[in-house]
Amino acid sequence: MKKIYLKKQFPISSQTSTNDKKVIINIIKLIKKSKKKKFNYLEIGSYLGGSLTPFLIEDNCKLVMSIDKRNQKQDDERSEEWSYENIGEQDMLKRLKQYNLNINKLKTFNGDIRDFKTSIKFDLAFIDGIHTDINTFSDFLNTLKKVSKDSIILFHDSSIIFKSINLINLLLINNSFNFKLAKFKESEMTGIFFGRFSKLNLSKVIMPVENFSKFSERASENLLLIQINNRIKIDFKISRFLKRKHPYKLSLNKKEKKTSPDFYK
To answer: Any bridge partners for residue 210, and if so which?
Structure first.
C-alpha cells in the first residue's frame, strides 16, 4: 500500500501510525466485499477527524457517526492527563472542510455513547475514546448494543487499554458470542470480529496477527515503566550521602498535563 494512497485517505494528521491506517483501509475493503451493500460506521473519540476521512471518502459508507466527549481533560492508564479543552466539534468540521471532504453523511454527538440513542445498526465501530480501562469497557458495552450481527469493533492504543480488552474477551467467551479477537502486529489496533467475519483468516485478508496474551505481558511491563516514569520523583541528597545515610527520597508527581500536537498542525 503506497504512502501517497494513505496520505490521500488520511489527509488530516492523527495519532494513527502507518500500519494502523493500513488496518483500517483493509477492513473497509473487507466490509465492502462481504456486505455487498452500503455500510454504517461509528467512531468514539474523533478529535479533529483524522480517522473519519477514509469513511467520508468511501462511497460505500452510507453513514459516518462521530461520538466525542468534547472540551475536557481526560485521564488515561499511563497516569497522564490529556487536555482537549477548547477543541470542539466546529474545529473538527473546519479541518475536514479544509480538505474538501463531503461531510453530508457525517453525524455528530457530543457526549458519552451511553447517552446516544439510535435504532440504526452499525457494521464497523472504532473505539478510541478515553484511554482508561473503565471507560473503554463502558464504551464497548454500549457499542455492542448498536452493531449488527456480522460486524467489527476496533480498538486503538491496545498497549494502553489491553486489560480492558482482556476483560471484554472473557465477557464474550462467557456469553457464548460468535467472535474472533485479533491484535495486529506492529500496530496499536485490535479488532473483535463477529459473525461471519470471525471465520476469516484475518492474517491473510487484513494484516498478520499476534498472540494477545503474549502481547499483553509485554504491554503490562512497558505500561508499568511509563507509569513509574510519569509519577515517581526521585531526589538525591548529597548531604545525606556524605553522612552515610540513605540519600534518596521518593515522592509522587502530579499527573502531567499534555495536549495533542495534532491540533496545531
So the answer is: 183
3-class state of residue 87 by DSSP: coil
Strand extents, DSSP E, 69-121: 73-76, 80-83, 106-110
Q: How many helices (H) and strands (E) does the chain have?
A: 9, 13
Phi–psi pair at 140, nearest 5 degrees? -65, -50
Handedness of CA 130, 133, 134, 137 (dihedral sign): positive
Is the model's pTM score more than 0.85? yes
CB 193 within 8 A of CB 203: no
Task: Say if residue 33 is exposed, middle or buried (CB neighbours under 10 Å; 0-12, 13-18, 19+).
Answer: exposed
In the chain, where the domains are located: 3-264
Placement of cell 467489527 in the chain: 152
CATH numeric code, 3-264: 3.40.50.150
Measuring CA to CA, which residue among 143, 138, 108 is closest to residue 125?
143
CA atoms of 253 and 53, how far apart (whole Å): 38
Per run of 10 residues, the mean pLDDT along the chain (length 265 residues) is 90 92 97 87 94 96 93 68 71 92 94 96 95 94 97 96 97 98 97 97 97 96 86 74 74 66 45
Give the three-state DSSP class for 180: strand
Residues 6+ positions from 193 with CB-CB distance below 8 Å: 152, 179, 180, 181, 182, 200, 202
> Counting beta carbons within 10 angstroms of the beta carbon of residue 26, is it exposed (0 to 12), middle (13 to 18) or buried (19 or more)?
middle
